[in-house]
Amino acid sequence: MYKQITQNKRKSFLLMLIFIAVIAALAWIWGQYAGNNSIVVIAIVFASLMSLFSFYAGDKIALSQSGAKEIKKEDNPYVWRLVENLSITAGLPMPKVYLIQDKNMNAFATGRDPEHASVALTTGIIEGLENEELEGVIAHELSHVKNYDIRLMMVVIICIGVITLLSDWLLRSFIWRGSSRDENKGGGIVIIIGLILAVLSPLFAKLIQLAVSRKREFLADASGALLTRYPEGLAKALEKISNNNQENPLRRGNKATAHLYFSNPFGNKNVKKLFSTHPPVEERIAALRTM
Length: 291
What we know:
The protein is built from nine helices and four strands; from the N terminus they run ααβαβββαααααα. It is mainly alpha-helical. The chain has one domain (40-166, 200-288): Metalloproteases ("zincins"), catalytic domain (Zincin-like, 2-Layer Sandwich), CATH 3.30.2010. The protein has a four-stranded mixed β-sheet with strand order 1-2-4-3, with helices on both faces. The protein is elongated and about 65 Å long. The termini are close together.
């Protein structure tokens, strides 16, 4: 379990370094071409401001979009006690608990930090899983909270915003200014490199985002298994959820919030591995059963 946690933390860190390298490359190209680096600062500030709203209100939007309703202990003592006991074990404050009326077997955690966290579960997952299986899923979601995965993904979104803005502005500069710069001083090479980066960077950034999301799922699986000391419970839950969700996609599933869910809310049909927010279920189960 500790080996899995260490590996996934290291891989997430390396992916973030790649993000920074892409931003630095775009900034260097812009500086070489335009002779003005102030646009980089503007891009970073603008992308950060756009992300502030989603950072502080994104959890409320996700919960509202999913149709989640907050519950108290008396509404569902069984679920409440599972969340409460695992929160105590993990050393976390008790998060708010929400239920989603849906046959799809799923769950997600949201919130900018452990003090402002919420855990949402579908009625399908509560009814369809045994006690130790549901415990494994909740432990997985609490691990997202403890590992600050929501905050990490917000940083990733900011990076994508900066890359998209820089790429767009760089392309527009090439279109409007053409090849008016002195190509004898290397301007032609800069333009070629810049065009390639400007076109491919947004796609590359999206792939890195998906890769970070998948690594954090593996990390939450390992952390959740460490919390319950029973990896098989989470592995069995994944098997049941995968089979159920093929025929019961989440009714209010949304691409913008798909990465938050325990399992792909649209099922696994016709989903390309490269562009999926979640690692293949088979890989997650195999990793759990090696612990």
